[in-house]
Amino acid sequence: GFLGGFRIGIFSVCVSRLNIRLRTKLFQSYLRQEIGFFDTNESGKLLSRLNHDTQIMSSTVANNIPQCIGAFVKFVGTFIMMIKLSFHLTIACLIGAPLILIVTRISGNAHGRISEKVQDLSADASEIAEETIQTIRTVRSFGNEDGELKRFAGILKQAYKASLVQAALSAAQKWFVELAQLGMSVVMLSYGAHLVRNNRIAGPDLLAFVIYQLTLGSILTVS
């Protein structure tokens, strides 16, 4: 309990320091840009990057670091035990790993591009809202409340559609990884049965290997 509270406190401080550093560096970058940069980029989008996106980035990084460290330690330990039990079975388990990594990398890049698009659209919506509120007297004088509302809702609808694509991509990636892991498990079990019949591995060792393989799969899935 004491160490857990200490860990939470340390990571909270790290999140705050990282957020301050990111926002300071980004604002410093803004100040070093040419005047034309501010003509081509809307102020709402720049402010959204400075206030909203930096907060998300710092929180994501700080929350993922302990998970990644724990997953890496578990992965290395489990992988070593699998090799000690049977090197050949370990190789059989890794047959489909390159394909999984390639697909995960491609889908991850696509996911990042869509996330950036959603953030840009959210910034555009914030810009419209800020502009409308600041010029509400002019909007009222022209009776253009419905027009501004339609423009604002249109941007949010685009962001929603992009989020749907992002969700579908995440689901497809999850399905592919699960099917690939299932196929690798079938190959491993078939080959393991062959090794048992030829007295190249004991039955209890095969059972232990299966448990380690499931543990390794859960680590990769969570990571």
From TrEMBL:
One of its GO terms (molecular function) is ATP binding. Residues 1-223 form the ABC transmembrane type-1 domain. It is a multi-pass membrane protein. InterPro entries: ABC1_TM_dom (IPR011527), ABC1_TM_sf (IPR036640), Type_1_exporter (IPR039421). GO terms for cellular component: membrane. It holds the Pfam family ABC_membrane. The chain crosses the membrane at residues 85-104. This is ABC transmembrane type-1 domain-containing protein. It comes from Rotaria magnacalcarata.
